[in-house]
Design brief:
single chain; 89 residues; mainly alpha; 4 helices
Length: 89
């Protein structure tokens, strides 16, 4: 299997304090069991045409923006004790 590019190597060594620095290929990445780590490693792969810093940053910034939207949406949800149970129709 192919080696990681510079962006994937950096992620493997920095993500979650380097918890996954031992991974050597995409198969290993998928076996880690961390969906966000897997997503980032795949998005930054050469096979996904991530071949320069600008593209890597664009992809990470887009993912960050999407995650922030979800954080905001969940933040705006009522607390669990405020939920009304839905009735079956």
């Amino acid at each position: 299997m192919s080696k990681f590019n510079q962006f994937q190597t950096l992620v493997a060594n920095k993500y979650d304090g380097g918890e996954n620095s031992h991974v050597e290929n995409i198969k290993d990445v998928k076996n880690v069991g961390d969906g966000l780590f897997t997503f980032v490693m795949v998005e930054l792969a050469d096979s996904e045409d991530c071949n320069n810093k600008a593209i890597a940053l664009e992809r990470l910034e887009k993912a960050r923006d999407q995650l922030e939207e979800l954080v905001d949406a969940i933040t705006d949800m009522p607390d669990e004790d405020e939920f009304e149970p839905e009735e079956d129709e």
